[in-house]
Hints:
Elements: H1 18-67, H2 80-112, H3 115-126, H4 128-131, E1 136-146, H5 168-180, E2 185-188, E3 191-192, E4 199-202, E5 205-208, E6 211-213, E7 217-222, H6 225-234, H7 236-248, E8 251-262
Amino acid sequence: MSVPEPGKQQHPAPRRRPHRQGARERIGAAVAARLGSYGRRSLGWRLGAPLVFVLAGALFVTSAVSSGGTDLRAGRYDDLPGLVSAEARQVKQLRLRQEDLSGQVDQLTTALGDTRASAAEAEAAEVAQEAGTQAVHGPGVTVTLTDAPAESLGRVAEDEVNNLVVHEGDIQAVVNALWDGGAEAMTIQGQRIVSTTGIKCVGNAVIVNDVPYAPPYVISAIGPAGDMLTSLNQSPYIGFYLEAVVDYDLGWDVQVEDDITAPEFTGSTELSYARPAGDAGAATSNDDGT
């Protein structure tokens, strides 16, 4: 320890200020912690962002593949007639394919020269016209049914909207009246009508021989025009439709034709259950054992 010189006062050595030093250390620690946290977050974003983009791209690709170019939100079709026409074209293509395959079967059958097949073909030819499997033409009558115009919708009550469209019952009434009047062959929308033809409504379309059609509905019948017109005028069901023509502006047009062509029926004529009454096979059991 040093001894102070006489006459001089010794001052104590300056001491550090601990509170200021602690503040600097705390600030340094806080900055270091912030930088470390920022680094960790930046690393997380750098790794996570590309992963999100990859997942989003995978979802887009999956949706595109699943849709096949169509709308995944089913039921959002505003153009129902266009949709019906597209379905009708597809069915027509399938029928053409069926005709091609049937022609190939006929060629193979002819090449075989089977006498039983020849006999069956001769028998089928005798009833082809009545069965609708042979194209025919001749004079007759054409009836056209049309839905009411769109502006009629604003002139009827909500519970009467159903009266503005043509229904399967209206078409069936015309078909029945023409048969009663002596029709020998008939078409709806150019499709040959046979004993197995079904007419039914699905939404705004009418299905004939499994093909959907939008209005107008054109029904042509070959036969005695005078008798068929009389039958149309005397049918009570046609009378109900004509009242709707007046009340709801439904379309009704009748034309006498000099020559109508009814193409052959190209659909399936095979029966799964019906058998001739005298056929021993009529008593056989069905698939369900009954």
